[in-house]
Amino acid sequence: MIFLPDYPATTKWLSEAERVVAQGRLAADAGSEDVLGEENVSIWRGIAQATKDPRVWLFACLQMATTASISYSHFFPTLIQQIGFKNRTTVLLLTSPPYLFAFVWALSFATVADRKQNRSVSAGISAIVAMLGSVLMITVLKNPWARYAFTFLVCAGTFGIYSTTYTWLSSTIPRPPVKRAAAIGIANSCANMASLFANYFWLDEYAPEFRASWGCTLAFQALAFSCIVGLRFILRRGNKRFEKIIQETDPDDRAAMAQLDDDSQRAVLNGFRYIT
After folding, report:
1. How far apart are the first and last CA of the chain?
2. CATH number of 43-232
3. In this predicted model, what pLDDT tens digit does every residue of 68-124 receive, in sequence order?
4. What are the transmembrane regions (predicted)?
5. For 133, which of 34, 110, 154, 170 could close a Cys bridge (C-beta 3.0–4.6 Å)?
6. Low-confidence spans in the chain with pLDDT less than 70
7. Closest by alpha carbon to 132, among 121, 120, 140?
8. Domain-by-domain residue ranges, the chain?
9. What are the residues whose beta carbons fall under 8 Å from the beta carbon of 141, sequence distance 6 or more?
10. Is the Cα dihedral 199, 204, 208, 214 positive or negative?
């Protein structure tokens, strides 16, 4: 725990100038200055706010679908062996490259998503690549090296989704902090629930091609892609609503501002927009 940083204002190993910069970046990301302090919102109220927000459940469904579609990783050496590589040493050596490729892919797409401030495009492309890999695993059955190459697509795509969605959730629901924490907790809980059923995709009776298994994986990849598209649509519509509110609302009119929700107030005062 001693290695985990606290809030920027209280992190001792940062200089004063670094604290100011870190706090400014947090404020810019959240679209509000008072997000830096502890807000007077109870834990239970934050949980209630999170459970009533449909975006939270869409993110939770996305995480559950992604976790379900990545269940192949629990049996990856066996899958490589069933493709047609029987030597144990060869199987173990062939297990690592798809994950190394997925690491480079996920890091690259996460970096691009951060710089472009466009999460849905990076996550959507990764989902499409993952679905393509699963389709090829279902349809191409005779060529071991081709099937092995398709595992690169599946690994890169699924881990590419993971690399963008949690930061996307945090930036979509930046405040109050307890609501953001509850939203992340809900998403994590739903994601872990996938382990209750996803491992049953890979029963011995589906060997050696595991076509039914890859079919289940494809279905959850498609569900993840649908969630990404849905979130993009909802957040873009929210940004259009902000633009209309900004045109119609005087920031000095306290009565009008009091009728707006937190995100709309930040849009009027600080130009806050959802990252799509």
Report:
1. 33
2. 1.20.1250.20
3. 999 999 999 999 999 988 889 999 999 999 999 999 999 999 999 989 888 999 999
4. 56-76, 96-113, 120-141, 147-169, 181-200, 212-235
5. 154
6. 1-9, 25-41
7. 140
8. 43-232
9. 147, 209, 211
10. negative
